[in-house]
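Retro notes - structure team

What went well: the batch runner handled both jobs without manual restarts.
What didn't: labels got mixed up in the shared folder, which is why I'm recording both outputs here explicitly, each with its sequence directly above its tokens.

Job 1
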Amino acid sequence: MRYGRIKIIDMDVDNPGPLAGVRVLDLTAVVMGPLATQILGDLGADVISVENRQGDINRVMSAGPVRGLSGVALNLLRNKRNIAVDLGHPDGRAAQRIEIPMTDAVRSFVLTEHGGAAICEPPQGPAGYNRILTPLRGALQTADGWIAVQPHHEAHWTALLEASGLPELVGLVGDPRLTSRGVWLNPGFAYATLGRLLAVKTTAEWLAFCSGHRIPAGRAASLDDLIAGLPQAEHPEAGSYRVIPPPARFSATPASVRRPAPLPGQHTREVLAEAGLTDAEITALEQAGLLHATERPNRAEPSRAEPTQAGS
């Protein structure tokens, strides 16, 4: 899908999104947390991202047109205001300390699915969600390309098997291994069967067929294809860039891009003043080295990605 250009609309739009009026304090870092708060910002929330004085690592996770605005950060930090403060200093943090270790967060996410039968005491079976763990899951080859198809119901399997025209596959109609529960118990057989039947038609033929039978399906695209299809916008400092559109669509209060990604500490004084600090108090914090003052970037000197061992 090609979008053309997208306009960064004014902050005073009539319908800024379903979360208009909600304020979010964003203490996340790297990718997954900032992505979650980016979605909230797209939906209208007033997101205030808090970074240390060096800036979050997503600002240098790829090359970018100006220092502090990598290609990653241009989308990840949109629809946010930004303050840069030394939270490690007693004067730079609030009363409560919040800590969410990455390993604990990932473990919680993974075990939600993969804990499975092993969560019970005594265990009712091994850990692991078979459908996710099967090596056959993913895009499968058609007669002329690659496609991702996700048959959820027995009716989906029946339609696909019959459309293949292969007697050995048509004969599997009604096979209990090709039901929702059967696929969960033995995903390898299901995905091997799916691979065999998809190979008999072209990608376009299967996309049309799946659309007509309400079977989730999509053409497998390369990263370059996906990026080429993104809309373009203009950043006041970084220039032209490609916007990753908000994935959620609301008919009455649509998501939108209302703020371009900020520079580190761009809104520090503004946000602290809203929090009740006087101009003199903010200046004192700046002079103490606890706040970061934004410097105007030089677009003639694009930033370079810096190596890092941090994960997302």
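Job 2
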Amino acid sequence: MSEPVLTIFATAKQFRGHDGVIQRNAVASWTRLHPQPEIILFGDEPGTADLCREFGLGHVPELACTELGAPLLPDLFEKAQRTAAHDLLCYVNSDIMLMGDFLEALQKVSEAHKRFLMVGRRWDVSIREIWDFSARGGGRGLRDFVNRHGKQALPPGNSGFFAFPKGMWTSIPRLGIGRAAWDEMLVKLPGTVGRLRIVRPLLVYKCPGIGEDAVIKFGVIPSHDQGARAS
């Protein structure tokens, strides 16, 4: 059973203050996945280029934005699919911490379905300092922390990531990241539901709406194709 080879892409806020802490925690968790994915950050917010150099990430500074400065989904997803070295991609919110369970779930989904969109729910938890993976038990310590202190967020607007095969979308409306419930709008684009296998992780940890950290956990259950269960 081969493991998925993945490109993670994201946009970030300024790497300053609390936003800097939670985004650094998120990126550090992505680099600890095995096999290690290609990681590309888009945009030119202060600190992005420095972090990409530090972690050896890909960086694409040019990104179209709305009049209010929110990154535009069509430009982001088009550039990500054109730039990515791998056929599996995943957009992840820049304050989402991932663990190995995420790749295990993605492997099950990609083996079961040729065309799919894997999304997740989040568990809110406050982490206000740089997470020391080596001193705090790595992914297991992080999961234990969230089990004790986390709370699952309610829909809508709680999808912390979108995993999909390259070429899935050819047209995306002019949605800006950060718009209320933009993630649910993306899932419900015309032609997405019905043509694709929409799968949702059974249990997921993500950042809260106020901008804390988040962690992905456990397996998946298809929500629109009950005949292809992956658990």
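One thing worth noting from job 2: Residues 17-31 form the longest helix (15 residues).
We'll revisit the folder naming next retro.
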